[in-house]
Amino acid sequence: MLGLTVLLGGCQGLAPIPSAKSQEDPMASAPPIEHGLDAEGLATLLTAEFAGQRGDYRRATLGYLAMAERYNAAPLAERGTLAARFSNDVLLLEQAVGTWQELAPAAEAPLRLLAGLALQRGDWTQALDWRLALAEQGQHAELALFAELALESGVDPLPLRERLREHLDRTGVGTHPHYHDAVLAMAILEAATGQRQQAETRLNQLERNHSELPALWLTRAQLALEADSPRQARESARRGLEVSPGDPRFLLLLAQAELMLGNVAAAEQHTAALMDEHVGNHELHVSLARLYLEGGHLDAARRLLLPLVGSDEPPPEAFYLMGTIAEQEGEIDNALLYYRQVAPGSHFLRSRLRAAQMLIEDERLLDARAFLRIERLRHESHFSDLVALEVELLDEAGLSAEADSLLDRELSRTPNDEPLLYLRAMRAWEHGNLEAMERDLGRIIEANPENASALNALGYTLADLDDPERLEEARELIERAHELEPGSPAIMDSLGWVYYRMGDPERALAWLERAYASMPDQEIAAHLAEVLWTLDRHDDARRVVAHILRQHDEHPMIDDLLERIPELAP
Fold first, then answer.
1. What residues contact residue 110 under an 8 Å CB cut-off, 6+ apart?
2. How far apart are the first and last CA of the chain?
3. Other CB atoms within 10 Å distance of the CB of residue 233
4. How far apart are CA 57 and CA 151, in angstroms?
5. Predicted structure pTM score
6. How many angstroms separate the Cα of 474 from the Cα of each of 240, 403, 527?
7. In three state form, how does the secondary structure of 172-206 look?
């Protein structure tokens, strides 16, 4: 229920990247350019300015950064960072923010941006390091919230705990205004790594000097819930309400504790108080309904949802949850009615999938397929998605031939449907029919030469075949894809792989390192490790492999690599 706590308490993170369409001049809010430039510097900055106004944010960024480094001017790096945020190129943004931070090491904004970017690419240790840099400057680094998010995301807490321990040992007690935040984060990580006694000791020490902190009681209550100690959680939440009357986070924790104790009526009293404080907040109502559903309290969840589905603007998820309740009560047709009322949006496909799965589980496959066919007619904008959904369900039912027939039939009616052509191409590739895959991808590219996904898929497949006669063709396809989407890690990975296949591992390495920095998944990791091994950087290759093995329970790409190069095993 961390999501509910964040919803009620609020948090700060990486600010959303604005859309270039949202304002006429996205650079208008950037810091001014200082005077005193020579002719070359002025020309470069003017070029960057005009590039930004034309929407060529990459060129604008590089111009600003070049001049920032030349004149040691942090405001120019800040301006370059703003331009980079409009470029949709994460690596360019990291370069810009890194330059800004180097030129203004005491500035808060670049540190927060660097921490957010590290989090986006899944590098939690680096994200923590940047947050600790903020903490050491006396800023509120939100370390406790960071620790909770890390645990919620399934990150290994041990390395984070050790980094934080070093920070606490180095900083000393009470030397900056947000020291308690680091202590709370440490207690959360200690509890998650089996050191519950150390966590309790740390919280007890903090309580002696700072019992007025709501965050202390919030952490105590949350840890107690995780330890299946609802009475202790209830007591901590009550103490929290004493120091922070009406705080909705403690009302939520009280409701959770009462539910764990089986006191549904008491829980509903607390959630009623929450709703009285947030009248009209449909998102909160839905989140509370999910809380009751997780505990199997269907009637309580229904009481929260019924007013929403009868309102003038019902949230789509309310219908989805009502469908879930009806399904759990065995009312299949009633559930189907609710699932069908989920409007297009984030829960639209999920509701259709669940409805079809429910019918199949009830041995009503024909009804499930008829339902999806009708939904395709009702929602033409989701036609391709709904066909793909039915294909997936047929595959799961062991009816792959039926799935192929469905795909062929719908493509005969809509022969230029790019998503369905792409889906059929990928199915052909899975079945080893490379000729059929190439034919469908070729049809997409012929109709839409700017379909970067199709260009990259075909180019990568040709590169992976390692046919010397087609490597040049593969390179051209992938480079075209990169021109269209220069910030795509998947395309950068393909570029690295085709250069490696062409016998240029040094050139390949640069692209694979950029791809891995942006998206550290196992396929890119396997490519990077192989290239590093080829370049005799054996220790670096093993580190990449070890990282993926630690992060993922299943890693078929790494397993295949280790079969070919057993010496890579860490």
1. 78, 81, 97, 98, 100, 101, 104
2. 37
3. 25
4. 36
5. 0.73
6. 62, 30, 17
7. CCCCCCCHHHHHHHHHHHHHHCCCHHHHHHHHHHH
444-471: burial string, b at 16+ Cβ within 10 Å, e else: bbeeeeebbbbbbbbbbbbbeeeeeeeb
Half-sphere exposure of 73 (CA within 13 A, CB side): 21
Type of residue found at 161 = R
Written as six digits, the tokens of 184 are: 């709370």
Q: How many helices (H) and strands (E) does the chain have?
A: 32, 0
pLDDT string in tens for the chain (570-residue length): 544 444 445 433 333 444 444 445 555 555 555 455 677 778 888 888 888 888 888 888 999 899 889 889 999 999 999 998 888 777 788 899 999 999 999 899 999 999 998 888 788 999 999 999 999 888 999 999 999 899 888 888 999 999 999 988 887 655 567 888 999 999 999 999 999 999 999 899 888 888 898 989 989 999 999 889 999 999 999 999 999 998 888 888 999 999 999 999 999 999 898 888 888 888 888 989 999 999 899 999 999 999 999 888 899 999 999 999 999 999 999 999 999 999 999 899 999 999 999 999 999 999 999 999 999 999 999 999 999 999 999 999 999 999 999 999 999 999 999 999 999 999 999 999 999 999 999 999 999 999 999 999 999 999 999 889 999 999 999 999 999 998 899 999 999 999 999 999 999 999 999 898 888 889 999 999 999 999 999 999 999 999 888 877 788 999 999 999 999 988
Cβ neighbours for 393, distance < 8 A, ≥ 6 positions apart = 353, 356, 357, 360, 368
CB 515, CB 492: distance < 8 Å: yes
- Tokens 């920032």 sit on residue: 68
Q: 3-state DSSP call for residue 566?
A: helix
Q: What is the CA radius of gyration of the chain?
A: 27
| Cα 46 off chain centre by | 37
Q: CA 514 to CA 496: how far, in whole Å? A: 9
How many residues appear in the chain?
570
What is the Cα–Cα distance from 28 to 16, expressed in whole angstroms? 18
- CA 236 vs CA 254, 271, 288, 340: distances in Å: 9, 17, 21, 43
With the C-alpha atoms ordered 348, 352, 357, 358, is the resulting torsion angle positive or negative? Answer: positive
Q: Which residue has the tokens 């046919």?
A: 467
d(CA 320, CA 332): 13
Residues 6+ apart with CB under 8 A from 132: 141, 143, 163, 164, 167
Q: Collect all residues with Cβ–Cβ distance below 8 Å to 557 and sequence separation of at least 6.
A: 522, 523, 525, 526
